[in-house]
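Recall that a protein's primary structure is simply its ordered list of amino acids. Everything else, from secondary elements to tertiary packing, is in principle encoded there. The following example makes that idea concrete.
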Amino acid sequence: MATMHHRERLPQLDADRPFIADGGLETTLIFHRGIDLPHFAAFDLLRSDAGRQELRGYFEPYIELARERETGIVLDTTTWRASPDWGTRLGYYPEDLDDANRAAVALAQEIRDENERTPIVVNGVVGPRGDGYDPAELMSVEQAEAYHARQVATFADAGADMVSAITMTHPEEAIGIVRAAADLGVPVAISFTVETDGRLPTGETLPSAIEQVDSESSEAVAYFMVNCAHPTHFAHVLDDDGAWRDRIRGVRANASARSHAELDEAEELDEGDPQDLGARHRDLQLQNVVVLGGCCGTDHRHVAQISDAWNGR
């Protein structure tokens, strides 16, 4: 088994300021770098030296940003789509997906080794089985655990420090991933996405989803996050007090205030206003945030504004 650095205690949980994360990987590659990503699958770039160099180049400004802000970075693997159903669409056999997930961890580890003065957490990213904008494919907890277990186990064996389930649309899928990670002793974060009304795409409220995951997983989640939504979509939800709100310790917002349906139909990138996005983070009713990054439409400019606004609160 590869060496893992931080599984016993994730360093972002003890830092004096939030770690950063990257922004919208896929939207940056497609709209800023002109790279074709069938099915939004950035992991496919790992198959070539040129692709790996593109991914390295993508992460460079975020590493520099963490260095400038004197904080750490949660360094995601490029594996949001590297799960069985999506892999099949791209012509990957199960063993090919295993290789891709291991290669993604190895790339993140190489970047960490090259930047020893910056605290870096290698984070194995698990995406939803279905479309993160469309909750049409729902699973039971047992189905979700069976579906995602192999990818989580590959991350564990490759030496990832933690795993994160990103853009979760319903709590049952999240619980299955948590159970798979807990069986392997790997820390896990869960990030839900919400629609413009602050509810999950399936209609559940954010508080109820967090409470259900905690209840059915013995609070095994290291922390929860919200991603792939603009702050205007969920800020009002955070005005309601409760223990669930303290469990949210990460935010990775979209640049655009458009709905998921509108973004899905858009042919041009909506980058929003980085300064305004940062200011809106400053006003969120959250006290214990340990990770700040971006999602669709964001890049290092947005994350810099978010980090600066938050640290100036």
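Residues 84 and 92 are 8 Å apart (CA to CA). The domain at 17-311 is CATH 3.20.20.330 (TIM Barrel).
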